[in-house]
Design the sequence.
RNA sequence: GCCCGCCUGGCGGAAUGGUAGACGCAGCGGACUUAAAAUCCGCAAUCCGCAAGGAUGUGGGGGUUCGAGUCCCCCGGCGGGCACCA
């Protein structure tokens, strides 16, 4: 099979009309670099229109993948387009360089995490540069640079001074064999991924950022983010999870001896959004981590066994909620706040989360699905207290499920007859009057635990002193650097097991003390990097003049998988930095675009092995369907599903190989042309080959026309006939591509450029100046997408021009050429298309109706029936109702 | 389990509530060539029909409307997130 890398020896004319991307792409990249086309000052001049384009920075895994290529291509189109529109564009790049994979590499291959990371960065930087991105590399940094994480430590201390940092107990996944804390993804079916040991929950004292202090503001401010996708705002709102309800105190019928040396427990607090259903209560349930569960476990081995079992479930909410609902009756009982003399059993339940509300619920199985399932399983009573509209209170019974809709309260004493909303209010009033509870707004959002018991992260800058407590590291001792000499052969956190690193003098009293050995969650690193880019070498976290000028990011682009956590943490961090005087704004990202994933077919050999695409050869079966066999043999291969590219499925395509074979412009063009950027795209060999053909066609279109073109600058005004038609196509395409780029419809922009290329190809002789105008226009319209080819074409069309396309302004369409003289209207009868008519754009309605009615096929459909209604949508449609 | 999306020809997709399928990929036919590749031209949702034309059609079912891919309700399939992967 022939391909783009085969040098074909044919007549010299053909040879001449072939775009040699291999020499052109590096040449233009060097020229952009030489002219510093993409450099901007930290503080732009006052009259500059600034525009900050940022793609989510990559984790330096070693090689760029197609997801990166897609992400950075999208961002680069925006950056180049906005620059052409007259903005001063900042477009930086860096590395999200701390994290688990570097430690895994260290354990598995004995390579130092730092060495591994910086090698990966060098590789990936070179690969990204080959894409021809309009990035200002002078701003580059990695989060594992001490210059970066040292400034992060300053922010940590500033946040601490501002009351945004606290220490709390929290639960982690603990691997008892490896002696390490496990990430959720390292827990597989309840076992540690390396040791295979059953994972336990363990309580540790950890560092937290007080994100909940901003819960209300983080929720309200979503409204103002008018250039964010609605679904992302919705996901964030649900995550923050504001709910109105009540805190209810249930008195234990007898005090319970607490497990730890603490005063006995005599009541349990519950949060509920349904105080209206209190009369439907049938049990109370606490989380396995609740003090009352501990008290039960202390005196009852069965309760202890159940609590231990819950501890083996891990900390992931998905695991907990998907597990079968199970419980254990503690034997304790609580009194009902309203029903004199009534009491209910207290259970420990595996679906109650300690982190939400108070870690305890009251169960009303009649009107809550989870409570219903639980009550049905353990034979607990189910009393309906909400009567659906129109139901009969005498004969009403729940049929196999809870009723969670609106209705009227019954079986509920003083609440009877009230609607749900009114009953909630009345119940809260009654609770408050009796001192048994209070109305309350509760949030699902929890404080952000940032402690990680790992080496490859930003050290948390505190020192533990027996005498002085937890003492901040003084500013002049920052950064707290990671030690270089670390031993990954021992279990546990290498910082903790390091012989000397943690032993320091207390900054306050000078006595021997211990350094904090926890490092930061890597989400902290990515929560302010966008601000650091504005003044990347500053000796402070950010310089005010730079961030005040450049922030917020005007267009942020990245994967939908970050819709909640990364974006929420960055919004929190920006508020924290504002309140500690580093910034003036609250919202970091004015515009957000979330791209889809890159997918590919997967392939499996007969023995069930995943195969790389380059190991497979394709053919066509007798029935026309595609077949696949192993290359260099004919062992059958199964073509599997199209799914997200992943190393484990081996359905990956190496961007480097694609650029070698087709060039960066082709890769970029295919990615943009395939589908809308917010959707998942499928990488196909045929698609990229098609994109390559188009790039060559464009080159031929220009190169073949050169000899016949009038000199540059020849006016095309006053053109008639063919030439005018071409000029209309030119200006309509400028308008259409501009609109498409403004709305992220890059695939539509590509389609319009294809149509335009067809129109130029069809344009007849004698269109001289109009043809030059068209070729120059198409060159400049493709420039954000295929920047190297555009420079090459521009140099052919304007050999004497000194400016690069990258330095030219965007084109403006001539409104006079956008107008049409006639318009085609669809003519419908009863909403069904029966014909079309061509009318002058300014034709009056009577003329249009007469013309439409006269149309032969329309006549046949009306068939003499009287017309009851005539509808005319100007420029679109005529509809007759008969 | 909970929250959020997506679903249109063989494939990717286009379409301010107004001619569904633009444009591209793959396919088929033709031109060029000794031949192939490359290139250029043409055809193409499905079914019926020689044609004119008709019927069906945007995951399935229902609704609103003169008119629904688009708005509303229910269902199905696929995907993202669920707080220590990044």
Sequence:
């Amino acid at each position: 099979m022939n391909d783009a890398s085969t040098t074909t020896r044919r007549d010299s004319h053909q040879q001449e009309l072939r775009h040699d991307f291999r020499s052109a792409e590096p040449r233009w990249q060097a020229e952009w670099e030489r002219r510093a086309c993409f450099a901007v000052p930290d503080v732009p001049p006052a009259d500059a229109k600034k525009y900050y384009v940022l793609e989510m920075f990559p984790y330096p895994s070693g090689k760029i993948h197609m997801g990166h290529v897609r992400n950075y291509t999208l961002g680069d189109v925006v950056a180049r387009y906005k620059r052409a529109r007259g903005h001063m564009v900042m477009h930086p790049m860096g590395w999200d360089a701390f994290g688990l994979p570097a430690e895994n590499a260290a354990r598995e291959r004995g390579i130092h995490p730092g060495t591994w990371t910086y090698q990966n960065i060098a590789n990936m930087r070179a690969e990204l540069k080959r894409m021809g991105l309009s990035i200002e590399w002078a701003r580059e940094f990695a989060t594992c640079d001490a210059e970066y994480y040292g400034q992060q430590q300053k922010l940590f201390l500033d946040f601490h001074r501002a009351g945004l940092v606290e220490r709390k107990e929290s639960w982690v996944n603990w691997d008892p064999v490896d002696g390490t804390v496990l990430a959720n993804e390292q827990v597989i079916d309840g076992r540690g991924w390396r040791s295979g040991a059953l994972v336990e929950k363990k309580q540790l004292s950890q560092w937290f950022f007080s994100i909940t202090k901003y819960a209300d503001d983080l929720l309200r401010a979503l409204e103002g983010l008018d250039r964010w996708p609605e679904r992302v705002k919705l996901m964030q709102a649900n995550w923050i999870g504001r709910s109105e309800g009540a805190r209810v105190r249930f008195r234990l019928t007898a005090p319970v001896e607490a497990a730890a040396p603490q005063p006995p427990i005599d009541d349990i607090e519950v949060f509920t959004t349904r105080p209206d259903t209190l009369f439907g209560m049938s049990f109370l349930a606490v989380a396995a981590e609740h003090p009352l569960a501990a008290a039960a476990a202390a005196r009852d081995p069965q309760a202890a066994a159940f609590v231990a079992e819950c501890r083996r479930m891990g900390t992931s909410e998905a695991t907990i909620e998907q597990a079968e609902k199970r419980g254990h009756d503690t034997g304790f009982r609580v009194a009902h706040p309203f029903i004199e003399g009534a009491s209910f059993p207290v259970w420990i339940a595996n679906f109650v989360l300690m982190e939400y509300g108070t870690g305890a619920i009251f169960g009303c199985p009649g009107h809550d699905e989870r409570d219903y399932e639980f009550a049905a399983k353990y034979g607990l009573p189910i009393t309906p207290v909400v009567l659906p509209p129109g139901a009969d209170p005498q004969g009403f019974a729940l049929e196999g499920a809870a009723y969670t809709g609106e209705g009227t309260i019954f079986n509920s004493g003083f609440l009877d007859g009230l609607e749900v909303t009114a009953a909630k209010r009345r119940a809260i009033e009654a609770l408050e009057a009796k001192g048994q509870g209070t109305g309350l707004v509760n949030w699902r959002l929890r404080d952000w635990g940032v402690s990680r018991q790992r080496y490859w992260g930003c050290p948390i800058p505190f020192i533990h002193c027996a005498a002085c407590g937890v003492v901040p590291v003084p500013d002049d001792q920052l950064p707290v650097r990671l030690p270089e000499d670390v031993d990954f052969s021992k279990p546990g956190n290498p910082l903790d097991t390091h012989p000397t690193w943690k032993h320091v003098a207390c900054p306050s009293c000078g006595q021997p003390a211990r350094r904090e050995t926890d490092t930061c969650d890597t989400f902290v690193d990515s929560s302010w990097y966008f601000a650091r880019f504005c003044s990347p070498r500053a000796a402070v976290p950010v310089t005010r003049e730079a961030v005040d000028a450049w922030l917020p990011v005007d267009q942020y682009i990245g994967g939908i998988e970050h819709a909640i956590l990364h974006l929420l943490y960055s919004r929190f961090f920006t508020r924290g930095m504002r309140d500690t005087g580093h910034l003036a704004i609250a919202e970091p990202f004015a515009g957000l675009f979330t791209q889809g994933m890159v997918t590919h077919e997967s392939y499996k050999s007969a023995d069930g092995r995943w195969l790389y695409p380059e190991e497979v050869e394709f053919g066509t079966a007798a029935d026309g369907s595609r077949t696949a066999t192993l290359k260099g043999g004919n062992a059958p291969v199964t073509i599997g599903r199209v799914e997200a590219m992943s190393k484990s499925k081996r359905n990956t395509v190496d961007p480097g190989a694609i650029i070698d074979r087709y060039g960066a412009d082709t890769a970029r063009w295919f990615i943009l042309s395939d589908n809308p950027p917010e959707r998942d795209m499928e990488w196909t060999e045929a698609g990229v080959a098609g994109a390559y053909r188009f790039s060559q066609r464009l080159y031929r279109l220009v190169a073949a026309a050169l000899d016949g073109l009038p000199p540059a600058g020849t006016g095309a005004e006053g053109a008639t006939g063919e030439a005018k038609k071409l000029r209309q196509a030119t200006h309509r395409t400028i308008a259409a591509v501009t609109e498409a780029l403004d709305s992220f419809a890059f695939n539509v922009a590509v389609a319009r450029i294809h149509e335009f290329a067809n129109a130029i190809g069809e344009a007849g002789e004698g269109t001289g100046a109009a043809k030059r105008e068209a070729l120059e226009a198409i060159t400049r319209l493709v420039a954000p997408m295929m920047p190297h080819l555009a420079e090459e074409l521009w140099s052919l069309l304007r050999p004497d021009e000194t400016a690069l396309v990258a330095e030219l302004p965007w084109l403006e369409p001539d409104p006079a050429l956008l107008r049409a003289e006639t318009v085609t209207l669809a003519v419908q009868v009863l909403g069904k298309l029966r014909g079309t008519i061509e009318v002058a754009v300014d034709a009056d309605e009577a003329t249009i109706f007469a013309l439409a009615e006269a149309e032969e096929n329309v006549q046949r459909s009306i068939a003499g029936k009287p017309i009851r209604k005539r509808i005319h949508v100007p420029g679109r449609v005529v509809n007759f109702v008969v």
